[in-house]
Prior knowledge:
Layout: E1 2-4, E2 11-16, E3 19-24, E4 30-35, E5 45-47, E6 53-56, E7 62-65
Antiparallel strand pairs: 1-2, 2-3, 3-4, 5-6, 6-7
Amino acid sequence: xxxxxxxxxxxxxxxxxxxxxxxxxxxxxxxxxxxxxxxxxxxxxxxxxxxxxxxxxxxxxxxxxxxxxxx
Length: 71
């Protein structure tokens, strides 16, 4: 699953089993990655329009700050 930020810094988030990675969409460089507790199935989620937050399909959903890596 991938998500794009439509405004702010151009970012792409890639969701896989147990991992979320955020990349700069222009350079392809890694901005941040998150280990997510839910490892039993692929994750889905979204980036906020400004690219500052990532929402992940945990139960309950978790929200992460891209800049700091904090939940």
